[in-house]
Amino acid sequence: MRTIEANFDGLVGPTHNYGGLADGNVASAKNKGLISSPRAGVLEGLAKMKRLADAGLVQGVLPPHERPFLPRLRELGFSGSDKAIWDAAWAADPVLCRNLTSASPMWAANAAMVSPSADTADGRVHFTPANLHSTLHRSIEGPQTETALKAIFADDTHFAVHAPLPDQVAFSDEGAANHVRLCAEHGEEGVEILVFGRDAYEDYRGVFPARQTRQSCEAIARRHGLNPKRTVIVRQSQRAIDAGAFHNDVVCVGNGPVLFFHEFAFEDKAGTLAAIKAAAEDLFEPIFVEVPDSEVPLGDAITSYLFNSQLLSWPDYDRMVLIAPKETEECTSTREYCERLVAGNGPIGDVQYAEVRQSMRNGGGPACLRLRVVLSEEERAGVNPKCLMSETLYQELTAWGEKWYRDELGPNDLGDPALIVEAQGALDALTAILGLGRGFYPFQRG
User: Fold this and answer.
1) Among 16, 133, 158, 247, which one carries the catalytic annotation?
2) Fewest CB within a 10 Å sphere: which of 140, 237, 274, 442?
3) Is position 368 annotated as part of the catalytic site?
4) Residue pLDDT, tens place only, 369-403
5) Is the CB of residue 25 less than 8 Å from the CB of residue 397?
6) What domains appear along the chain, each with residue ranges and CATH number?
7) Three-class SS string for 198-244?
8) Which of 5, 66, 174, 327 is catalytic?
9) Does 133 qualify as catalytic in the annotation?
């Protein structure tokens, strides 16, 4: 039975804007207050999905969340009609409102931690939606992500969708952005690498927040039923976090047996690589592709998002393909490194560049936009088929985005109550397209 790795990309939401809300995200801070284009953003994302689907890869879609998120305002004491609530909240606390309009669920790498059935004790694919405790605008995502995953992966004979970890600082969890799985073949037992930035019980003093705790990694490994012998829990480099690598996927990506990483990705590089080798013993020989800081300075790696790329096993090609953002091509050190990389005899044979500039300006590259899910043929048959990319779905979603999304959205436009009507109309239409059910979003439940 053939097992593949599918990519489920987050659709850019109708309220995509540059709020600069993420402390430690250099691109987000740099572009705060710029005029965004939600329409261009959703079309760029769809084009990337279509590109992979056309190449023969399995590509899925994750829906955006309801934004502005009025249920949170009701919890905080605002009442009345949607318009009355939004007008009152915008007048009283526009910073809160901006947090509740963020389209951050588009970065599906933060949606959940995923373990394939080959690695879990009960032989099911396990999902733990991230609680994203570290930031206000993302901390509201977990429950809706859980709803989405249960709608797409509904067959509980094959899938186990857990609730997010407790919404508490000790269990701060940022999802698959701090998770790498290595294996010989996708359907075989692999090594799961969970990366944390801090221990919840230590006195953390970094320049920027370390968003993932050791305790969250340990909890996820337990609830997914991972084999301790094949599980590696390691610390991200403090140097990388302080430079703006707010998630490990900004400095590291893996696929199959290959780990592609920056010299300063891990706090204890030698210990990390030795632990991975020990965990892979008798399964496969890990292949380490380390990028020296002398060739790609850490700052260039972070601003270009060289490692926030998709490293893929390409159909009918015996080497891997790296789907990198255009910014990697535009940065001299990373472009020249990529040219040397593919000219050699290593496992990565091609670098292709994708235009995801709307996402990049908010600090999210191609890898941020996707959640990787390893599926056997039987498991794939249990996935909601309307959420799998096809020519028909691409055309439907393109027309949908062109109809409902604004061409431009500025910081002050977020206070317009009409945006609520537009966003709800878009999401209402989307639930029909993706077969998610009429009560999928809170506003649809009355």
Assistant:
1) 247
2) 274
3) yes
4) 999 999 999 999 999 999 999 999 999 999 999 99
5) no
6) 3-67+102-445 (3.75.10.20)
7) ECCCCCCCCCCCCCCEHHHHHHHHHHCCECHHHEEEEEECHHHHHHC
8) 174
9) no
